[in-house]
């Protein structure tokens, strides 16, 4: 039973109606730093959905804070009216609202504007690849003054709290860390001195906030950067931050440059709340636990265990603005849970595009995607219950149409159903769980193991047929692809192929690389075995690592372009590439497949020379093609036909869901 999640809690002078915190995220909704309708409508939906506290930002406190014009701004009094219009709208609900005061330091891109990149010391940032300018004492005083002025503006704009960011590798982190702080004055050297800049900033913000406004400090629970801080030092800083005036400590994982995944689905659910637990032992103010909390039952368990007093739900509230209200009303199974794909959130941030969501087509488009009842009720048959077909069926039914959703398989989901586990995207099953819960409740009739044919359509006499039959693997025009030792990647991932010891995968896109990892894992020990052997110290750490990573197959991937994983987003690609390296997968780029023979593959390298690779099995991962033969057959019968998803053009899951939503809300 979920109960603790909905208990009110006090953060300094501010009372929250529940313990769900929507933590700060870059959204790229604010051209020139200004609040607009898109920004307000996005957050209003989350306030209406029941979030206890919304933290917006980061908000630039000066021209050197970030150097990106799409970020929210609080660096000028001209920003106050827009911010005030925002807080007024949010305060129409029970939700409280805070703003994160942002100063990136070495992570800033302000050099694009001709400004020096400020940091404690001179070094080349691993994140931006740019050289920093050491801060003078005057710089320190000026930046701290900017924090104070930003706090004043936040107060005038009606915010309930401000958050000082001392996490993710930003400026305060750079002062804290011996890796980036090489100063020899009162702001460098000992931990006490390295904490000075951050603590002085917090103290001055506290004074400016006054007695009616809360001060939150966002900290890195562990930098996860060699030579930098662990949870041990974070505990010391958190306790000192409390003494400096912090009313709440918000704990996340490591720095942006960390080579330990922070936000991808590789991280277990609530994977870093243990860091919050460590800090909670050292402070008496409320502590927020964060990272990969997308389920109200997981959130409840975190709170019941006492490792945190509040939970940070960021992407989970992008995916479903009604996360809190659904959980509170006993409809947790109707929550559209974040799948940690990062494809339309973090990847869009890096590409300077507005943030969206793979599972929620309305994210960032709330006012433009209102679902209205139809005035012309139709009977609609949908062929294919993958993401596109399910999303269409849901939205069409919500508008009042009679929808019959059919699929030849025994489960809904299309490719997602069989690929999620094989590619370690187990969270993708949440997409299907959602549709399974809501489709029958919205009146959709689902018929599984049912093929849509011309005869069926003649019998049902629908007003419309929607073809969402997905895609099929692409087969190159090479005779050898029909050989018994050549497989499609789909067959491998489905478990329908028995590959040999030496495997060559042709195609280095996302599917090819994920297939490589899938095969390279064969023969490794399971997580349960690893836990058992570790706890009982049955093997050395070196042996355990080898057993966990080294499988029984030799896997090679050949790709004709210069870059592996070109279709993988930047927030995820480096994780995949790291795992391929750890597992010993050989990667060959600029390699054009020429011939496939029994026991060998021949490719032409970038120098024009043919190379032979030993191959007991060959796996083709050369893309896919739309499967829309049904549409062509039905069009001849005169029935109205629409084609969506991969059956129309091959793309990602998000494209398929968007396609289904667009048609479902307009027919």
Question: Can I get a quick summary?
Answer:
This protein has 667 residues and is of the alpha/beta class.
Written account of the structure:
With 667 residues, this protein is of the alpha/beta class. The chain has 3 domains: 4-11 and 24-367, TIM Barrel (Alpha-Beta Barrel), CATH 3.20.20.70; 371-473 and 628-664, 3-Layer(aba) Sandwich (Rossmann fold), CATH 3.40.50.720; 479-622, FAD/NAD(P)-binding domain (3-Layer(bba) Sandwich). It is built from 22 helices and 28 strands. The strands form 7 sheets. An 8-stranded parallel β-barrel has the order 3-4-6-9-10-11-12-13, surrounded by 6 helices. Strands 16-15-14-17-28 form a 5-stranded parallel sheet, with helices on both faces. Helix 5 (191-209) packs parallel to helix 6 and helix 12 runs parallel beside helix 14. The longest helix has 20 residues, at 137-156. It is globular, with a radius of gyration of 27 Å. The relative contact order is 0.09. The mean pLDDT is 96.
List its traits.
single chain, five-stranded parallel sheet, 667 residues, Rossmann fold, FAD/NAD(P)-binding domain, TIM Barrel, alpha/beta
Q: Report the major sheet.
A: 8 strands, parallel, barrel
Mean pLDDT: 96
- In terms of per-residue confidence, which ranges show pLDDT below 50 for 5 or more consecutive residues? none
CATH second-level architecture of the largest domain? Alpha-Beta Barrel
- Rg: 27 Å
CATH homologous superfamily classification of the largest domain: Aldolase class I
Shape, per Cα inertia axes: globular
Structural class: alpha/beta
Percent strand equals 15-25%
CATH topology of the largest domain: TIM Barrel
CATH class of the largest domain: Alpha Beta
Helix content: 25-40%
Distance from first to last alpha carbon: 40 Å
Number of separate structural domains: 3
Largest beta sheet: strand ordering: 3-4-6-9-10-11-12-13
**Overall number of strands:** 28
The number of helical runs is 22
């Amino acid at each position: 039973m979920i109960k603790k999640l909905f208990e009110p809690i006090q953060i300094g002078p501010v009372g929250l109606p529940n313990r769900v915190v929507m933590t700060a995220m870059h959204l790229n909704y604010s051209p020139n730093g200004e609040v607009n309708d898109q920004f307000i409508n996005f957050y209003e939906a989350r306030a209406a959905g029941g979030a206890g506290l919304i933290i917006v930002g980061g908000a630039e406190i000066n021209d050197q804070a970030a150097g990106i014009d799409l970020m929210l701004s609080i660096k000028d009094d001209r920003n106050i009216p827009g911010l005030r219009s925002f807080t007024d709208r949010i305060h129409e609900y029970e939700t409280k609202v805070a703003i994160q005061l942002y100063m990136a330091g070495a992570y800033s891109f302000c050099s694009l504007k001709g400004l020096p990149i400020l940091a404690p010391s001179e070094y080349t940032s691993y994140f931006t690849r740019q050289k920093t300018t050491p801060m003078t004492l005057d710089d320190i005083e000026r930046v701290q003054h900017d924090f104070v002025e930003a706090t004043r503006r936040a107060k005038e704009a009606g915010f309930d709290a401000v958050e000082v960011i001392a996490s993710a590798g930003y400026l305060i982190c750079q002062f804290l860390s011996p890796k980036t702080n090489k100063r020899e004055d009162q702001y460098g050297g000992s931990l006490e001195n390295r904490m000075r800049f951050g603590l002085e900033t917090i103290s001055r913000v506290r004074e400016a906030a006054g007695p009616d406004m809360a001060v939150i400090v966002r900290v890195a629970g562990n930098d996860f950067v060699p030579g930098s801080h662990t949870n041990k030092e974070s505990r010391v800083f958190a306790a000192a931050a409390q003494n400096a005036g912090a009313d709440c400590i918000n704990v996340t994982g490591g720095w942006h440059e960390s080579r330990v995944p922070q936000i991808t689905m590789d991280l277990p659910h609530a994977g870093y709340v243990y860091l919050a637990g460590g800090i909670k032992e050292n402070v008496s103010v409320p502590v927020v636990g964060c990272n990969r909390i997308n389920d109200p039952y997981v959130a409840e368990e975190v709170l019941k265990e006492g490792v945190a007093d509040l939970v940070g739900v960021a992407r989970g509230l992008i995916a479903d603005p009604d996360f809190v209200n659904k959980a509170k009303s006993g409809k947790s199974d109707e929550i559209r849970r974040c799948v940690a794909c990062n494809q339309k959130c973090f990847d869009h941030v890096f590409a300077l595009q507005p943030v969206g969501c793979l599972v929620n087509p309305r994210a960032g488009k709330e006012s433009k995607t209102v679902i209205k009842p139809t005035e012309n009720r139709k009977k609609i048959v949908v062929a294919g219950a993958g993401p596109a077909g399910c999303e269409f069926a849901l939205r069409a039914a919500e508008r009042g149409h009679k929808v019959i959703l059919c699929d030849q398989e025994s489960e809904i989901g299309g490719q997602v159903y069989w690929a999620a586990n094989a590619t370690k995207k187990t969270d993708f099953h949440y997409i299907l769980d959602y549709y399974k819960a809501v489709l029958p409740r919205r009146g959709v009739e689902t018929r599984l193991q049912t093929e849509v044919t011309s005869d069926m359509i003649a019998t049902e006499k629908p007003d419309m047929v929607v073809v969402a039959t997905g895609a099929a693997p692409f087969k190159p025009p090479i005779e050898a692809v029909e050989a018994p030792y050549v497989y499609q990647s789909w067959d491998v991932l489905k478990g329908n192929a028995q590959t040999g010891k030496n495997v060559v995968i042709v195609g280095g896109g996302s599917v090819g690389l994920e297939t490589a990892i899938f095969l390279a894992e064969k023969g490794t020990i399971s997580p349960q075995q690893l836990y058992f052997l570790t706890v009982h110290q049955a093997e050395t750490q070196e042996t355990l690592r080898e057993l966990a990573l080294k499988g029984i197959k030799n896997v090679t991937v050949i790709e004709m372009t210069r870059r592996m994983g070109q279709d993988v987003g930047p927030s995820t690609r480096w994780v995949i590439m790291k795992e391929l390296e750890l597992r010993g997968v050989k990667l060959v780029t600029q390699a054009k497949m020429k011939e496939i023979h029994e026991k060998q593959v021949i490719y032409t390298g970038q120098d024009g020379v043919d190379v032979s690779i030993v191959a007991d099995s060959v796996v083709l991962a050369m893309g896919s093609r739309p499967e829309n033969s049904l549409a062509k057959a039905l069009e001849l019968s005169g029935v109205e036909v629409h084609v969506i998803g991969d059956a129309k053009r091959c793309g990602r899951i998000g494209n398929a869901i968007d396609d289904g939503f667009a048609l479902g809300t307009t027919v």
